[in-house]
Design brief:
This protein is α/β, with parallel strands linked by helices. Helix content is 61%, strand content 9%. The protein has a 4-stranded mixed sheet. The chain has a 3-stranded mixed sheet with strand order 2-3-4.
C-alpha cells in the first residue's frame, strides 16, 4: 500500500474519531442529570471532574458552541479536505471517475453511523461517566475557542444565558414515583414525599377537632366533679373553658389531671393545672403549623376564627397523620 493511500485512510479515521468524540460528548452533556452533577460537586470530596462539569453546564450555551464548532470542523471542513485529497489520490491511479463517488458515499455513511448515531447513543447511555471524563478537555477547548465563542455571543445573545436548575411539585412527585418504580427509593418514602406537598394544600380548619367534638373542661369546677368525663375520653389534651364558650383559660394534660386525682388533689380546678394556650388561625397552612410546634408547648394549639372565637383544637399528631397517610378528607 502506497504512502498516499495510507495517509488517506489515516485522515478518514481522524475525521471519524473527531466527529464521534464531539457527538458523544455533546449527547452526554445534554443527557446527564444536572441534579446528580450538582450532588457530586457538592460533596466534601467531590468526584473528579464534577465541579468543572457543573461550571460547564452552568454556561451550557458556550460549551455547546465550542463543541458544535469543533464537530462541524471535522464533519464539514474535514470532509471537504478529504474529498479533495481523495480526488488527487484517485487521479494519480487513474480511477478518479469511479472511485471518487464511491468514496464520497462511503464517507457519508461512515460519518452518519460512526460519527453521529453510534457515539450519541453511547453518550446518552453513559452520560455521567462520559461527561465527567470529558470535562477537562471541554474546559481547555472552551479557552482555545474563546474568541470565536465570544463573537458568536455578540451575534446571538441567547448563548450567554445561564442554565439554572429548577423544579416544581409535579416534577418532584414524578421523580419520586419513578425512583420507587426503579427501586432507588422505597415506596413508602415516595408516598410520603407526595404527602409533604399535600400539607401546603391543607389548613388547620381541615385537620382540627371541631369545638363541638373537642374535649373541654369547666374551669370553675373541681376535677373530682369532672372525673367521669376524664375517664370516658382518652384525649391527651383538654381545653379549659371559662364562663363563656369562647373564653379559653388554657389547656391541661390528661396525665396531669389524672395524677392529681390519684394524689387526692381532686378539689383542684383544671385552671390550677392548665398551661398557657397557643392560638393559631383556622386558615394557617398545615406545613407552617407543623414547623411551629415546639416541644415545650405541649404539642397542642387552640384554633380560632377571624373574630378570635374558639372553633377547634389541633395537635401535632393531626398533621403527622397526613404524612403517615392516616388522614382522610371528610366526605
Amino acid at each position: 500500500m502506497s504512502s498516499d493511500l495510507l495517509l488517506l485512510i489515516v485522515l478518514v479515521l481522524v475525521v471519524l474519531l473527531g466527529s464521534a468524540l464531539c457527538s458523544g460528548v455533546e449527547a452526554a452533556l445534554l443527557t446527564v442529570n444536572p441534579i446528580r452533577v450538582q450532588e457530586l460537586a457538592a460533596r466534601e470530596r467531590p468526584v473528579a471532574g464534577a465541579r468543572r462539569l457543573a461550571k460547564l453546564r452552568k454556561h451550557l450555551g458556550r460549551t455547546l458552541s465550542a463543541l458544535v464548532i469543533t464537530n462541524n470542523g471535522f464533519n464539514i471542513f474535514g470532509s471537504l479536505m478529504l474529498g479533495g485529497y481523495a480526488a488527487w489520490v484517485f487521479e494519480q491511479r487513474g480511477v478518479n471517475s469511479a472511485a471518487l463517488p464511491l468514496f464520497s458515499i462511503g464517507l457519508t455513511v461512515l460519518v452518519i453511523l460512526l460519527g453521529e448515531i453510534l457515539p450519541k447513543a453511547l453518550g446518552s447511555r453513559l452520560a455521567l461517566p462520559v461527561a465527567l471524563a470529558s470535562a477537562p478537555l471541554l474546559h481547555w477547548l472552551g479557552i482555545l475557542l474563546r474568541p470565536l465563542v465570544v463573537l458568536l455571543e455578540r451575534i446571538l445573545p441567547a448563548l450567554t444565558a445561564e442554565a439554572e436548575i429548577s423544579t416544581n411539585e409535579d416534577e418532584i412527585r414524578l421523580l419520586a414515583r419513578l425512583g420507587s418504580q426503579k427501586g432507588e427509593i422505597e415506596a413508602d418514602e415516595a408516598a410520603m414525599i407526595g404527602k409533604v406537598f399535600q400539607l401546603n394544600d391543607l389548613t388547620a380548619r381541615d385537620l382540627m377537632t371541631p369545638r363541638v367534638a373537642a374535649p373541654t373542661l369547666d374551669g370553675s369546677l373541681s376535677i373530682e366533679s369532672q372525673r367521669s368525663r376524664l375517664m370516658e375520653n382518652n384525649s391527651q389534651w383538654w381545653v379549659v373553658l371559662g364562663d363563656q364558650v369562647d373564653k379559653v383559660l388554657g389547656v391541661a394534660s390528661r396525665e396531669h389531671l389524672l395524677t392529681a386525682l390519684l394524689e387526692n388533689r381532686g378539689l383542684l380546678t383544671p385552671v390550677d393545672l392548665c398551661e398557657q394556650v397557643d392560638y393559631v388561625p383556622e386558615m394557617i397552612r398545615a406545613d407552617r403549623l407543623l414547623t411551629g410546634f415546639r416541644k415545650d408547648s405541649g404539642g397542642v394549639r387552640v384554633v380560632v376564627d377571624e373574630f378570635g372565637g374558639f372553633v377547634g383544637v389541633i395537635g401535632a399528631e393531626a398533621v403527622l397523620a397526613v404524612l403517615a397517610g392516616w388522614w382522610r378528607k371528610p366526605a
